[in-house]
Amino acid sequence: MNGGEIHITPDEAVFFQAGFFKLNATIVMTWVVMLVLVIGSILITRRITSSTKIPRWQNLLETLLSALRTQIREISEQDPDPYVPFVGTLFIFILTCNILAPIPIYEPPTGSLSLTAALSLTVFFAVPIFGIRARGFVGYLGNYTKPFFFMAPLHAISELSRTVSLAMRLFGNVMSEGLIVALLLSIVPFVLPVVMEALGLLMGTIQAYIFAILTTVYIAAGTSGGH
Asked: If exposure means fewest CB atoms within 10 Å of the residue's CB, which of 65, 76, 185, 210 is most exposed?
């Protein structure tokens, strides 16, 4: 919602266009999120200490990292260290995109199918990379021949369908939540929209968690031989 105008997705808010190039809200808000993460990382990590008394932000990051490691270990039954940077980056990026939603004029870029598709494609390519690194090229391709070699096309279709599902799930949930809040703000601009904003923050956190967990499940399947 920008200037009283309701957008279904941030792609519809175009700030500049030259030929086929469009600078829309999805691109701008993605840059904003990246800038927030970069500045936040610099501010938090410059005061990291190994002493017993640590800053609250370092404590928060260590708690988050510990929780991610625990979740990845429980799901994959493997050493989580190789996967924490990738899964953690996805989780923190999506979480930041979603929790900034109450800020005026900000539109979550995760409400754009183009961004959620890009995030899902990173998972699509990361799974075989992690799988080949863990099991070798031949070993990873063996996933597609289980239980019989003629199942390979079905497994390939499954890989594509879950990528589409990842993108559509995140896009659909974030877009619908933003649209409902915008409509409520225009109809009942008092208590109810505030409640919906709070609920939206909770749902945004859950969506980031679900995306990270599903990514871990797919990676675990590719690295362990399960499909």
From this structure: 65
CB 29 within 8 A of CB 108: yes
Rounded to whole angstroms, the Cα distance separating 24 from 7 reads 12
d(CA 182, CA 105): 12
Nearest to 41 by CA among 122, 96, 82, 87: 96
C-alpha 45/C-alpha 69 separation (Å) is 19
Domain ranges of the chain: 10-224
- What's the pLDDT tens digit per position in 54-65? 778 878 888 888
- Strand, coil or helix: what is 28? helix
Chain segment 5-23, per-residue pLDDT in tens: 556 778 787 888 777 778 8
Question: Closest Cα partner for 179 from 164, 194, 200?
Answer: 200
Whole-number Cα distances in Å, 132 to 76, 97, 128, 225: 16, 31, 6, 11
